[in-house]
Automatic annotation (TrEMBL):
InterPro entries: Leu-rich_rpt (IPR001611), LRR_dom_sf (IPR032675), NLR (IPR051261). This is NACHT LRR and PYD domain-containing protein. SUPFAM superfamilies: RNI-like (SSF52047). It holds the Pfam family LRR_6. Keywords: Leucine-rich repeat, Repeat. It comes from the Eukaryota.
Length: 77
C-alpha cells in the first residue's frame, strides 16, 4: 500500500469522452483544489468551447501548477 500512496498521475487522457465546457470547469476546479503532478492533459476529440479551453489554459500558464502540455482539437498548447 505504501507504493500506492507515492503514486502520482503525470499524464491524463480524456480524449473522445464527450467532455464539454462544464466538464472543463469541474476538471479545472479539481486540479486547483488538489495540487497534482499532472504534466500532460489530452482532451482531443471533445466538444470544448472557448470558456472551457480558457479555464484549463490558465492552469497551464500558472506557475503554481505543473501542467506542461494541453491537447485539444488536435492542437498542443
Amino acid at each position: 500500500m505504501d507504493s500506492l500512496e507515492e503514486c502520482v498521475i503525470v499524464l491524463c487522457r480524456l480524449s473522445d469522452c464527450g467532455l464539454k465546457d462544464e466538464g472543463c470547469a469541474a476538471l479545472a476546479s479539481a486540479l486547483k483544489s488538489n495540487p497534482s503532478h499532472l504534466r500532460e492533459l489530452n482532451l482531443s476529440g471533445n466538444k470544448l468551447g472557448d470558456s472551457g479551453v480558457k479555464l484549463l489554459s490558465d492552469l497551464k500558464e500558472d506557475p503554481h501548477y505543473k501542467l506542461e502540455k494541453l491537447y485539444y482539437c488536435e492542437y498542443i498548447i
